[in-house]
Amino acid sequence: MIHRHTTILGKAVRQAARLRGGGSALPGLFVEKIDPEFTKRCLENLPRGVVVISGTNGKTTTTKMVVELLESTGMKVFTNRTGSNFSRGVAAALLGEVDSKGRLNADIAVLELDEAHAVHFVKKIPPRYSLLLNVMRDQLDRFGEIDKTASMLEAIAAATTDTVVLNREDPRVAKIAEKLTGTIKTAFFGLSNDLRSTFPSDDEIHSITPSAVASTTPTLVSLEAFTDHDASFKIKGQIFTSANLKLQGIYNIFNAAAALSLIAAIQGDEIEPEKLTAALSDITPAFGRGEKLQIAGQPL
């Protein structure tokens, strides 16, 4: 019976946590304990389904890009904006968006999820689309070996019901396409040949010979060129340029190609590349990512 009151109780806990300055994920943890099906119930009937974005690096800013680009097309998007990328963070974010009856007014959910937590999340709530960014050695303290991280991303891909978007330039991520079966579709984002050395994979960074990646594999979107302020992307065989970019850091520019590829997979023939690349110019990185500060008069 308690599930009928989950939303009211969860919202009360959320308000209390905010008044006390508590963690943003606490209400989600509470809701998961009293009603494990709350998140699934809220998300399962969205018209455009659920999107999961995961990978070692770049999840938060890439998710922000995808959300803002989709919103620029008129879609109503639910996301876990606080950056709490565990399942409890998704539940907590839902409490701030659903009405008193637990109804979510959105067309699509775009969720940033930690690799390990995503594996459990997708067992309950299979995403319609997933975007897998990269596998790097940053988190060996958590997962023990880089191939363990890759296996988690593979599990996310295997649970996807429509399209998995993969990084063509990361050998471990690209290889996931070979392991998918059934009706799951795959698509890739990538780089022009001239830029591949600018964005090395983890193996290349550590001077290990990478697995062969067919650079001729077609991409939905590729990053063709960039400067400090502009970036050019090949979309549907044509070049489109985003001018006066506010994104900081070259990997955010590459991940913009990932975001555009995901939207191309979601929208199909509806996509309007010129409008999307124009909208990209107004997007800033997520808080703290590539931020420039002045300390004692010096840039940091």
Question: If you had to describe this structure to a student in words, what would you say it looks like?
Answer:
It is a single chain. With 300 residues, the chain is of the alpha/beta class. The protein has 13 helices and 11 strands. The protein has helices at residues 6-19, 26-34, 38-43, 59-72, 87-95, 115-124, 140-143, 146-159, 171-174, 176-179, 202-205, 250-267, 273-280; strands at residues 50-54, 77-79, 108-112, 129-132, 163-167, 185-191, 221-226, 231-235, 238-242, 294-295, 298-299. Strands 2-3-1-4-5-6-7-8-9 form a 9-stranded mixed β-sheet, sandwiched between helices. Helix 1 (6-19) runs antiparallel to helix 2 and helix 6 runs parallel beside helix 8 (146-159). It starts with 5 loop residues before the first helix and ends with a strand. 45% of the residues are buried.
